[in-house]
Design goal:
This protein has 517 residues and is an alpha+beta fold. Helix content is 35%, strand content 9%.
Length: 517
């Protein structure tokens, strides 16, 4: 496919289509069990390995020995990585139809593909399986055991592991030189969480770089959308209608017909032609909702706000009976901002580093051991030639804290909105002089004055977010760093004075050393 000689765009589209089809077949149970078998040889007795619990083929070999089967040095042990068995911690998949030994319901949804067994139809799909709580080595089984487990509905192949560890790494390595695709795009085609692979490209990334695989862009030319792309978003939901979306900040912009009624009583200001309205960011802007209050939502454990299904699993906390809604909103926002800031700081302090080689186990799991070489920090895995980079660098931490602070800065947002309104007014005047009567309706002509209760909420949360941001020394340059300049200048002056003194002491009649004959 890659060497077919076709146009690059056509090849890239074919790769993406093929990956989507492969992932769909694997999740649908159309791939035979034999295709998932991995084989690895034994160089010594299974019990002589120091890391038995971390190698799947050793776990299978020990299970074979326990079952009374002979296992010798030099044997090749086949195994398949499965999800946790039904009934164990973290398991919860429905069993498959009995007799489905030809194909497997890989994601644990209990479905068999049509035609896998005679007269067997697809069973109802169960909810998605939660992430496994044990490593892949402890979930490795012999193919014969997997076939029996699939037939009994007790075992399901871990398709997500195979897509992440066996399909994506070699494909990403082969496609790395091809323009028009990336590892994040390939992961998305396979149905994986693409945010896990954002900025994870090949090349010498090393610990000295904060934004791996991206070119330097000055901050003053970057928009907020570009600067805060990929941060842990603050999701809020309306206490009245339940609408959930990322928190808009101090002001929310409402366009279209909903702008006529949105935020009534919250200081709404129409646009230059009535086509847009600015309302307080604490007010719901969903169509048909009047003065709904936004509250931080709660997410299930292990669900990231950057994932595509975050909004689907989020829930809006109810306002307690008898409580002041705005005071409850203030407390909830303070707790949400503090939780996100502390979580980001913890991720940074854990210090996990990831290898840039897609086939290395430390590419997805991370490591904390460091070893240096001339072109960066080397991967600690023996035989791996990749470089490691921090999974949550100090630059990423600072951007997260800056994002939280940017949501509640009232005066800063007012200045930005007023500058945008003035620029729109100038553009409108210039356009009208040329006979153009449209193009600026979506820019409000004035900035609303927020009510005192809303200002109090923003001020309280902004103070907390700014306190966290001030603790970050990412953009702070200590004057002490330049103290060495004065020290070096003083030392140079002393050396120069000593040299001048020596030259002055050596007069015309001073003895000079004879040259060697």
């Amino acid at each position: 496919m890659i060497l077919s000689g076709k146009e690059r765009d056509e090849i890239v589209d074919a790769i993406h289509t093929m990956l989507g089809a492969v992932a769909a077949d694997m999740r649908a149970g159309s791939v035979p069990i034999d295709k998932y078998v991995i084989t690895k040889g034994l160089n010594k007795a299974p019990g002589d390995y120091p890391d038995v619990k971390g190698q799947p083929h050793l776990q299978v070999a020990l299970a074979l020995i326990k079952a009374g089967r002979a296992v010798n040095v030099g044997d090749h042990i086949p195994y398949i990585i499965c999800c946790e068995p039904v009934g164990s911690a973290g398991a919860g998949a429905a069993p498959t139809s009995p007799g489905a030994e030809g194909t497997v319901s890989p994601s644990g949804d209990g479905a068999t593909s049509p035609g896998a067994t005679e007269g067997a139809g697809a069973s109802a799909a169960a909810p998605p399986r939660a992430p496994s709580s044990v490593g892949p080595a402890m979930r490795a089984y012999h193919p014969d055991e997997v076939r029996k487990g699939v037939a009994a509905g007790t075992l399901h192949i871990d398709i997500e592991w195979y897509l992440t560890q066996q399909v994506l790494p070699p494909v990403a390595r082969v496609c790395e030189p091809i323009a028009g695709t990336s590892q994040q795009r390939l992961a998305s085609c396979l149905g994986l969480d693409a945010s896990r692979f954002a900025g994870r490209t090949g090349g010498a990334s090393g610990l000295g770089r904060d934004d791996e695989g991206s070119a330097f862009v000055p901050r003053y030319v970057s928009s907020a959308a570009d600067r805060f792309a990929g941060v842990d978003r603050l999701l809020t939901g309306c206490a009245s209608c339940g609408h959930i979306a990322p928190f808009p900040g101090v002001f929310a912009l409402v366009k279209g017909p909903a702008a006529a009624t949105a935020g009534a009583g919250a200081g709404a200001v129409p646009g230059a032609a009535g086509g847009a309205t600015l309302v307080s960011g604490l007010t719901c802007t969903a169509a048909g909702c009047v003065e709904g209050l936004l509250l931080p939502v709660t997410l299930p454990a292990g669900t990231s706000s950057t994932s595509d299904d975050a909004i689907a699993y989020a829930s809006v906390p109810p306002v307690p009976r008898g409580a002041d809604p705005l005071d409850f909103c203030r407390v909830q926002l303070l707790e949400a901002v503090e939780a996100k800031a502390e979580a980001a700081i913890l991720l940074h302090q854990q210090g996990e580093a990831f290898c840039d080689d897609p086939v290395c186990p430390y590419y997805s799991h991370g490591a904390r051991a460091l070893s240096t070489r001339k072109d960066g920090f080397a991967c600690p895995r023996p035989g791996c030639r990749g470089l490691i980079a921090p999974g949550y660098a100090h630059g990423k931490l600072h951007v997260q804290l800056e994002y939280l602070a940017s949501l509640f800065g009232v005066e800063r947002e007012r200045r930005k909105r007023r500058a945008a309104a003035e620029a729109a007014a100038e553009a409108a005047a210039a356009a009208l002089s040329k006979g153009v009567t449209a193009g600026w309706e979506d820019v409000p002509s004035r900035v609303p004055e927020l009510t005192k209760p809303h200002l109090a909420v923003f001020a309280a949360v902004e103070g907390l977010a700014e306190r966290y941001l001030r603790q970050s020394a990412y953009q702070y340059v200590s004057p002490g760093l330049f103290s060495y300049v004065a020290q070096v200048n003083t030392a140079l002056k002393r050396q120069r004075a000593a040299a001048d003194g020596s030259a002055a002491g050596a007069g015309p009649g001073a003895k000079r050393p004879r040259k060697a004959e």
